[in-house]
Amino acid sequence: MTLDLKVDGQSEERAEAFAQGLLGTALDRPDGVLKVTGAAVYAADDVPEGCAYGMLVRAPGFGAIEVGNADEVRAMPGVLAVIRDKRMVRNAAQGTANAAPVQGVDSADYVGQPVALVVAESFEAARHAAQALQLRTDGGPLPVNPGDVETEGEPDTTGDLDAAMAEAPHRLDVTYTTPSMTSAPMEPHAAVAWWEGDALTVRSALQMLKYNRNELADSLGIDPAKVRLLAPYVGGGFGSKLGIAAEAVAAAIAAQDLGRPVRVVQHRRQVFETVTRRSETRQRLRLAADRTGKLSGIGQEAWVSNLPGEVFQEPVTQATAFAYGAVHRVIGERLERLHRPAAGSVRAPGEAVGVTILECAMDELANDIGIDPVELRLRNIPDTDPEGGIPFSSHMLAEALKTGARRFGWSDRAPKPRARREGEWWIGTGMSAAFRVNVMMEAEARIALSPEGAVVETDMTDIGTGTYAILTQIAGEALGLPAEKVEVRLGDTTYPPGSGSGGSWGAATTGNAVWLAAQEIRAELARRMECGEGELTLKDGTATCGNRRVALADLLDGATLEGHGHIEAGDAFSKVRQSTFGAHFAEVAVNDVTGEVRVRRMSGTFAAGRILNEKTARSQCHGGLTWGIGMALTEGMVHDRRDGHIVNRDLAEYHMAVNADVPPLDVHFLEERDPWAGPLMSKGIGELGICGAAAAVLNAIHHACGVRVRDLPATPDRVLAGLEE
Amino acid sequence: MNLSFTVNRRARTLDIDPRVSLLDALRDHLHLTGSKKGCDHGQCGACTVLVNGRRINSCLSLAVMHEGDEIVTVEGLSDGAPSPLQAAFVKHDGFQCGFCTPGQLCSATGMLDEIAEGWPSHASADLDGPYELTQAELSERMSGNLCRCSCYPGINAAIRETAGTGDAT
Ligand code: FES
Ligand code: FES
């Protein structure tokens, strides 16, 4: 049996009345000990007997590929094969693609495209041979720079923004740019593939197994039922492992050709090129406001890029559509087809750069009008979704702004920039609102309850997000079991299909599937207790109904009880606008001599419905804030202007925030239940923390020293140029 | 080439291709896969292990250079139960995906010894110790270990708590 739920409306609060007291607590990760002792097995860790090692080879230019010395390379010691197979993929599949990405090795669409796999008896021999393989390309120059090509698509227009701008006493018309960025999970993309007859197993680093299985099967031209994927531990994803990637397809092909297991791990520099980047953006922001700061017009037009053949377009403005009320609007994206490495989802696609720039523009407007930036936001919170007129499922922005301001001590702030100086350093503070759309997908999960405890199974992944913890808590809460009595098994396509990790939907979607599976078991336990399910109390392995009390083990009578849950999004996601909200505050110091920026403290207040695990949710938000620091100050890919290749494609040249860049972070959650978000009343938290975080830092730079950096990141040279003006 | 060394207090010998890095020797030849390869270029710290008590990036060192050395990996930091530092990482959520974690743990272990021995860092006010484990010292000394999940608050809290007890390293 299965308990199905299509979320069409509001749910009733149940968990509150449950007795175990596990949900929402700061439970330590059940996978924690495995991770700190080195026992957790990641994709590249478990090498089967007889495994061969593959190394991908990149195209050095565009166009038809010519191989100069394949025979010599094949003859090198230890080399088993030089594989150039039409089924190899050009770049990683887009999230939820569910089908093969663009394939082929005859010709390169971007510099760095994987066009061969060298396989050898050892990693060292494969690496040597891959370096020795001589590839030539004959393609002419292709468009690689923004502005080089005609654009596709137009923003949505409502009312007359030009007229609103002309009439408004306060108006802002500015253009910002953000560079390409990368996910750079610490685990490079890796796959170990082996065949048993016509059945393929691949241990890989992936976020969304049910889609990845179809993507891999489609790439190879085989039945998805013949593919098993394993990803019990994944070393970070942030969007980069949403889709099947080059190494997994190549490993499967090589394992089939050679009749033995093959491991392919992408070199770190390959990860930068073959896995989708966050598109660079150019964003024109127009704001028209009256004397009190009330917006009459809002314009956010973004130019983004992607390779030909990719459907993904960075949805820069998706939260702008509902962020602030204004009658006159021009909001949307234009896409340029550029031959840079493919673009795709990177943590909070859309809002990460879109909300950030919107919130920089709001700061500029507040400054022009001379009102407090928090107040400007408060004055423009819409009553209903400005686009569709539908209500919000909940709207927590005002509370987040007020609570955040209080926690940070915002009221002490000098209204004008350049008010505080400590030696060489200008000190200032800035803030930003945070928005992130809330999405539910479809998921299934199974629970087997036996006298020993509960086993939860779903092909959901834990990419660091805390899935093992929260599913333990959800099942334990609903079934009245302490955490030690719940075992969660993830990352295997033989389990029921979960939602996958991405878009912040994993916890709520798969969590609700587990919740439903538990409800099915509860119903059966209530039947055995001869009471209504609503009267059943389960706690620490004991069932209570009225004055009857039975140990679960007795109720089960030695047998196992199964529950199966299935959830999908329904009308609740179109009847109301669902979003998460937050407020960021930052204090920075800007060096007047060098232009260096140091973030001194940061605070984020967030509302995302029920927080399932206080500890793991907080860590996710730490991640978001830290990525905001990186986006504001250091992160950016540099594309060669001649051929678009990524110049700084390694961890030494692409600067993510390190320990010393991150100040004490204050993260606070607002108590909330969103009844439209499914029975758990929980919304996504994994991406909210990055949405707008960089704006708080950039706005603080302006407040500190009066420099407005509109081309991200605010590296010392850019800050210094402003200081010299 | 033949190589004899000690790994996690156990004598090991390998007949190994001289191109094999210490990291790959540990991972692929001794099946100690706790140490991770994040970049293979000395840029991330995921491969940090202790060699004769000092932390190094094992991807930057060839295995055959370690004849007679004593290596400790994340697997060797605990004896059955997690060490106090490892337990503190769990308690403070000093990791999310866990991929940088073995390197953070080995690095923190080596770092605490360095500071105890009076090694200065970029954050030190002068070159003559002793130095205290201030936040600035800790952050500076741990900045060779990248964590894209950005668990620095938890990592720092775990290290400080463990160092405070004085017996965990
Ligand atoms: S793997 Fe050695 S420093 Fe990155
Ligand atoms: S825990 Fe994921 S990189 Fe540090």
Task: Walk me through what this model shows.
- The complex is a heterodimer of chains A (725) and B (169).
- Chain A is of the alpha+beta class and 725 residues long.
- Chain A folds into 3 domains: 3-40 and 440-574, Aldehyde Oxidoreductase, domain 4; 52-141 and 185-274, Aldehyde oxidase/xanthine dehydrogenase, molybdopterin binding domain (Aldehyde Oxidoreductase, domain 4, 2-Layer Sandwich); 350-438 and 578-724, Aldehyde oxidase/xanthine dehydrogenase, molybdopterin binding domain (Aldehyde Oxidoreductase, domain 4).
- Chain A is 26% helix and 25% strand.
- Chain B is α+β, with helices and mostly antiparallel strands.
- Chain B has 5 helices and 5 strands, in the order ββαβββαααα.
- Chain B has helices at 22-29, 84-91, 101-116, 135-141, 152-165; strands spanning 2-7, 10-15, 48-51, 54-57, 70-72.
- In chain B, strands 2-1-5-3-4 form a 5-stranded mixed β-sheet, covered by helices on one side.
- Classes of the chains: A alpha+beta (725), B alpha+beta (169).
- At the A-B interface, helix 1, helix 3 and helix 16 of A face helix 1, helix 2, helix 3, helix 4 and helix 5 of B.
- One FE2/S2 (inorganic) cluster (FES) is lined by residues 37-40, 42-47, 57, 59 of chain B.
Topology:
The complex is a heterodimer of chains A (725) and B (169).
Chain A: E1 3-7, H1 32-36, E2 52-58, E3 63-67, H2 70-74, E4 79-83, E5 107-108, E6 114-120, H3 123-132, E7 135-137, E8 151-152, E9 156-158, H4 161-167, E10 170-178, E11 190-196, E12 199-204, H5 209-220, E13 227-230, H6 246-258, E14 262-265, H7 268-274, E15 281-289, E16 295-306, H8 320-323, E17 328-337, H9 351-369, H10 373-379, H11 397-408, E18 421-422, E19 425-437, E20 442-450, E21 453-457, H12 467-479, E22 486-489, H13 506-529, E23 537-539, E24 542-545, E25 548-551, H14 552-556, E26 561-569, H15 572-575, E27 579-591, E28 597-607, H16 614-633, E29 665-669, H17 693-705, H18 716-724
Parallel strand pairs in A: 1-26, 2-14, 12-13, 16-17, 21-22, 28-29
Antiparallel strand pairs in A: 2-6, 3-5, 3-7, 4-6, 8-17, 9-17, 10-15, 11-12, 11-14, 15-16, 18-19, 19-27, 20-21, 20-26, 23-24, 24-25, 27-28
Helix pairs in contact in A: 9-17, 12-13, 16-17
Chain B: E1 2-7, E2 10-15, H1 22-29, E3 48-51, E4 54-57, E5 70-72, H2 84-91, H3 101-116, H4 135-141, H5 152-165
Parallel strand pairs in B: 1-5
Antiparallel strand pairs in B: 1-2, 3-4, 3-5
Helix pairs in contact in B: 2-5
The complex binds FE2/S2 (inorganic) cluster (2 copies).
One FE2/S2 (inorganic) cluster (FES) binds at residues 37-40, 42-47, 57, 59 of chain B.
Pfam family, one (chain B): Fer2_2
InterPro entries (chain B): 2Fe-2S-bd, 2Fe-2S-bd_dom_sf, 2Fe-2S_ferredoxin-like_sf, 2Fe-2S_ferredoxin-type, 2Fe2S_fd_BS, Aldehyde_Oxdr_Iron-Sulfur, Beta-grasp_dom_sf
GO molecular function (chain B): 2 iron, 2 sulfur cluster binding; metal ion binding; oxidoreductase activity, acting on the aldehyde or oxo group of donors
